[in-house]
Amino acid sequence: MNKLKCKTKKVDCTVGPICVGKSAYLVNKENDYDYKISSDDIVEQICTKYNISYKQFHKLKIKDPIRVEQRNRFDQAVEESKQHESVVWDLTNLTRNDRARIMRHYPNAEFHAIVFTFKGWEEDILKLSHERFQLTGKFIPPKVFASMCERYEPVSMSEGFSEIKSINMISLILKAKIKHEVVLCL
């Protein structure tokens, strides 16, 4: 692929394990970005194309042609993002290395971290993850969630971020869920 000059001026990185509201938060912010990179969106497209479940996709061997296609689409999305001024990476981005890898793609951009609260909410997140599986078929084993929590490295300005924003979507999701349940009971 012919690499063009990077036009990106601002990159926001979501930070947090699965099911903490990263994508839900971004739904209300979609006008803030010219381009969104989401591995989950690409996986969903691949699953639809090959008529397989999210769980089946993640059980495929890393060299399976379907997984290779997903990685190629992701790499293509990264290259396409460089032609946009404002980009958001909707991924877990749990470690300093994960975040540094993103920054290497955009040499002249300003970086913001959007860190999603999860410490102390693990039990609620696992319940929400189970509910999400029932609704969408997206299955994340509890041991994978536990591994994500263990790998998490707190975000620091020293990584190159000009802003770090902390968001607690879990409390908002639970409040909205309770309101919805109350309305259903009326």
What this model shows, in words?
The chain is built from 8 helices and 5 strands. It is of the alpha/beta class and 186 residues long. It has one domain: 3-Layer(aba) Sandwich (Rossmann fold). Strands 2-3-1-4-5 form a 5-stranded parallel β-sheet, covered by helices on one side. Helix 2 (39-50) packs across helix 4. The relative contact order is 0.22.
Q: Roughly how much helix do the residues carry, as a percent range? A: 40-55%
Top-tier CATH class: Alpha Beta
Fraction of residues in β-strands: 5-15%
Q: What is the terminal-to-terminal distance?
A: 58 Å
Please describe the biggest sheet, giving its number of strands, its sense, and whether it closes into a barrel: 5 strands, parallel
Number of helices: 8
Rg: 17 Å
Helix and strand pattern = EHEHHHEHEHHEH
Ranges where pLDDT stays below 50 over 5 or more residues in a row are 180-186
Describe the strand arrangement of the main beta sheet, using strand numbers. Answer: 2-3-1-4-5
> Strand tally, please?
5
What is the averaged pLDDT score? 91
Please, how many domains? 1
Summarize the structure.
This protein has helices at 22-27, 39-50, 54-59, 65-81, 96-105, 122-136, 142-151, 169-185, and strands at residues 10-15, 35-37, 86-89, 110-116, 161-167. It has 186 residues and is α/β, with parallel strands linked by helices. Strands 2-3-1-4-5 form a 5-stranded parallel beta sheet, with helices on one face.
Keywords, separated by commas or semicolons:
alpha/beta, Rossmann fold, 5-stranded parallel β-sheet, 5 strands, disordered C terminus
